[in-house]
Write a structure and sequence with these properties.
Layout (H helix, E strand, L loop, with lengths): L11 H9 L6 E2 L5 E2 L10 E2 L2 E2 L4 H15 L6 H11 L5 H4 L27 H19 L40 E3 L6 H5 L4 E3 H12 L3 E4 L6 H11 L9 H24 L14 H14 L4 E6 L4 H7 L5 H9 L19 E6 L5 E6 L9 H15 L9 E8 H6 L1 H7 L12 E7 L8 H4 L16 E5 L3 H18 L3 E6 L17 H8 L4 H12 L4 H21 L21 H4 L13 H10 L11 H16 L5 H14 L3 E6 L14 E2 L6 E2 L12 E5 L5 H11 L5 E6 L10 H8 L2 H5 L6 E5 L14 H6 L11 H5 L1 H4 L3 E3 L4 H10 L9 E5 L13 H5 L6 E3 L15 E5 L3 H12 L4 E6 L7 H9 L6 E9 L5 H12 L11 E5 L10 H16 L3
Length: about 1000
Amino acid sequence: MLRSISSSRTASGRLLKSCLLRRTTIGRSSAGVVVPFGFTSKRCFASGTDTFLSTSNANYIDEMYEAWKNDPSSVHASWNAYFKNMGNTNISPASAFQAPPNLVGGPTGSENLPLDKGVGSVDENVMTHLKVQLLCRAYQVRGHLKAHIDPLQISFGDDKSKPIPKELTLEYYGFTERDLDKEINLGPGILPRFAKDGRTKMTLREIVNAMEKLYCRSYGIQYTHIPSKEKCEWLRERIEIPTPFHYTIDQKRQILDRLTWSTSFESFLSTKFPNDKRFGLEGLEAVVPGIKTLIDRSVEMGVEDVVLGMAHRGRLNVLSNVVRKPNESIFSEFTGSSSQDQAEGSGDVKYHLGMNYKRPTTSGKYVNLSLVANPSHLEAQDPVVLGRTRSILYAKNDLENKAKAVSVLLHGDAAFAGQGVVYETMGFVNLPEYSTGGTIHVITNNQIGFTTDPRFARSTPYPSDLAKAIDAPIFHVNANDVEAVTFIFNLAAEWRQTFHTDAIIDVVGWRKHGHNETDQPSFTQPLMYQKIAKQKSVIDVYTEKLVVEGSFTKADIEEHKKWVWNLFEEAFEKAKDYKPTSREWLTAAWENFKSPKELATEILPHEPTNVQADTLKEVGKAISSWPADFEVHRNLKRILNNRGKSVESGNGIDWSTGEALAFGTLALEGYNVRVSGEDVERGTFSQRHAVLHDQSSEKIYTPLKNLSEKQGDFTIANSSLSEYGVMGFEYGYSLTDPDNFVMWEAQFGDFANTAQVIIDQFIAGGEQKWKQRSGLVLSLPHGYDGQGPEHSSGRLERFLQLANEDQRFFPSEEKLQRQHQDCNFQVVYPTTPANLFHILRRQQHRQFRKPLILFFSKQLLRHPLARSELSEFSEGSFKWIIEDGEHGNSIGTKEETKRLVLMTGQVYTALHKRRADLEDKTTAFLKIEQPHPFPFAQLRDAINSYPNLEDIVWCQEEPLNMGSWSYAAPRLATVLKETDNYKGHAVRYCGRNPSGAVAAGNKALHLAEEDAFLKEVFNSS
């Protein structure tokens, strides 16, 4: 256990150089107690990624001092004398202890002199006690580096190629063989909890053996980076005790049972489906009993909902043994006997599917479990899980305590270290509107990423090192010691429920097969897989332990294994006739809300979105008011007053006012409104001002939270500077309750690029793949204003490419009635505040939910052409297209119109100005406000109303290869085939030329390009 001890004591000089006398003066702890030997130095024994000594060491002296004050005999006689001197008012603090001359040299002085020379007035017992304290501290800080946490003995702890940290060797402190049997007083810094069990002294040999057992067994713990003394002491109280865990026969029976199910599941699949991919958990099967223990303990401490997220590795095992998906359902997916109803979607591979289930726990209480569906994009589900957990906490009115719902994320080791969304997600832990009260992260560490060794996959010793940034404890545990795994999972559950912060469990095991079961891993990791081939399964390791200790007989264990196997066989037979239900796949079931299948045969009535004028004026007054004792910025007063006046008069309502009226009326109707994103409270373009800040204090006021005592909640929150993480979080939030209106807004539309995985895999395809519905709104600023390629485009073309509506055929009358029910999401680009108002309200006033991709123009936020009258809010609904309103005024009648220009968005303002400048009377405009679902019927009817067109133009400000043209062109051709007069007519494109860059980099070039396509529209020079 110990390295050989040298008789030389020259190493003691290194001890002094590192720590004991970093300072020549006497320091003081936070409690004001004089602290000898420079204990306040924060960088003593800095080594690797761990800080050996921190200010918490001063706490040990404080504790000893407090113990001495209560009972002088409780400390060593040398400390008794020291504390007495310190309390003598006739002795100055500097005289209470005098350092020996040879220990006070500068950086190039005499630090390397050994302790046994010239110790002066230093009591040898005091020095011994201090050195033992430092040795114990070394185990607390660095013991994990020596722990037996790697069953393969190639990466951690038992890796013989790596030297044992010198701070964990006795020679580092100048101890010799004769010191091993020297008795040491227990107390602060030296196994104080052993003293509570009645022991007051232990030999150095016993202390070392105890520290080895506590910190270097089959688990290792990193916690000394946590700055909170309370949290560190909480952990020590559960770690530094003679027996950290001991299981009764019944508890061992439960662990064995759970392990049997976990290992037998993998063996059964391997036997029945040897050529199928299943991404098995072999080498890490102990994770399943661990999770079940975690759930049981969490429920005992008040948790009612557990939201799980994980990638594909071990997912089927977790679905079967944790979430309790019927095994016959899983087996039917392997055999292909499960028939997927195509009316409900395309489906997905079995190891991507989610589920929710209510099941009992060992305490007799029930817990709601949900496993979030996920794509193969590793870690993409992390923020989704947290968003869903947050919404559950909100629904349970538990946002203050955050005790009733918990997130559990299972990560691969390579993914945890390599995927940036992990850090984005962990950054939510303390954010007011994103915190979930702590997440338990489980790293299923099989020490390889597909074919890549850890040394090529990360720059840190452990995959978990990232967690130090958020002061989370990190528990490393050997996957082959199932009792240790159970202990650690139980401890993590208690930590989370006590402190409501994250905890990391790094379960170190191996991967029996390649990346999947048909892969040959020895191509790239021959030595690793030679070791794996010799490994005993965790069930065999545990069986041997139980038999040797006499807990169970081999026959008892084999009988239980056989019983479990027979149950799998029964499920396998039932799989042939199994008929799955859609509920099996759902992360959230949305009770009492009809499913798409239930609505499939119904033609749904039009849901009105208009609101009575009196109610609109009530909201208008609220959003332009503030408390009497609240000092609003003088410029903002004018903006808010104008808002109120526009609603009261019913004239000139602008974009942001229209949005506020939508949010306010939804809240008055009882819907909970949540708006999230970077700088959304004020709005990136200083347009929203949803949260007012007192100019002379820290007070804030949110008008939309103060509409009525009975209103739904209104939450608007500036997020962290994250798109991937926050968009995923809001998607997850939207899954829990269809009555939650959830909107994420990009600072600029093109910033959504970094969340493309969430868009592609969850928003665009989630319902078709997993039957999981969402009404999430993405608000994306878009428009070419000469601000360069990074602040112009929300990438409209990408969303339209993801649209699922068939461009080749004009829809039948029945399909026209079902366009919104059948689409995967909606893409809109409204140009009036009233249309914005109606589209936002439409999200909630329907019997189904679809994601909404909402583009909005920065220019139209304040443009005079983007104004609406109050009557447009109190009457009507969302308009898919807006026809030209100038017929008979500035332009001729429809019969006199020769050119019809089709467009989306703010390019309308440039066209409008150019037409006026040219005094063109024969050109009309038609704005398409909703590109998807496409307004086939509306466009057909509108074009038919122009009998004498000679030219039909599509105009856009985006380049040819971007914007709506590629999407609209084939659909326009389909529409024209259905018109009366234009069946063979071609639509002419006018816009920017194809480009690799989104937009011009300077204003002059931008204006030149705009002028060129405007001339082309009007055929003018």
